[in-house]
Amino acid sequence: MNNYLLKKGLFVLPTPAGAYYCVSTPDPTIARIMLRAMMNGESSHRLTIETLTSWSCVDEEETIETLLKSQTMGWIEGFEVRQPAPEGTLEDLLPKMLLKLSGSGKAILADEQGFSINSLGFSPDTAVNLSAISADIASMHERRRNILHDKLEFWTSAWALVDAAGNSQVGFWPIYIGVHRFVLIIGGVPHLNQPVLTQLIWALNKRYGNLDG
Predict the structure, then answer these.
(1) If DSSP codes are grouped into helix, strand and coil, which group holds residue 133?
(2) How far apart (Å, rounded) are the C-alpha atoms in residues 202 and 194?
């Protein structure tokens, strides 16, 4: 640990990859807990060892090792100025956020019961059916997660319907916020490597998150 020094003054947030990593399964690893804590509140947090250890609940050495792993994996980024949380209600934010996540302008955020919270670009009937299917897929993945991860070593939790060439027609990405499970459904090419994915997960964390959950 003595070989590493925190750069003082930076405000830290998860990258889009880090934001999705921390909500892609309900398994509470130290990295996931720290990444999600970075999106707790109305603005980004200043990077200090005191703040990091209060999030991780482990000693400084393990905290720094987790931070270093997160940096190496491209899960975190630092900013010179404090970054504000998404402002507005989730109902107002979702249409603008979902639009940026799909190359075809088709996206849905569905809840655990298979109901659409917000839909963009799909017909009403298609949105109803895809939302219902998303709940079945997420439940099936949860039942088979140990086999998929531990035995087959497929670490992704996302599923897709693909055409004969292997191109995704529609994809399903589960999002776990505390005790809540959502599924992000995207038609066509997903644009997940965008800051708006971090903003979406931050907005969901504000609305539904509970760091104890």
Answers:
(1) helix
(2) 13
- The DSSP call for residue 84 is B
Q: What is the pTM of this model?
A: 0.90
pLDDT of 79-108, one tens digit each? 999 999 999 999 999 999 999 999 999 999
Task: State pLDDT tens for residues 176-196.
Answer: 998 999 999 999 999 999 999
| Contacts with 72 (C-beta within 8 Å, 6 or more apart), sequence order | none
**Inter-residue contact 43 to 87 (CB < 8 Å):** no
Going through 33-72 in order, the beta strands assigned E by DSSP cover 45-46
Q: Dump the DSSP string for the chain.
A: -TT--PPTT-EEEE-HHHHHHHHSSS---HHHHHHHHTTSSSB-EE--HHHHHHHH-S-HHHHHHHHHHHHHTT-EEEESSPPBPPPS-HHHHHHHHHHHTBTTS-EEEE-TTS-EEEEESS-HHHHHHHHHHHHHHHHHHHHHHHIIIIIS------EEEE-TTS-EEEEEEEEEETTEEEEEEEESSB--SSHHHHHHHHHHHHHH--TT-
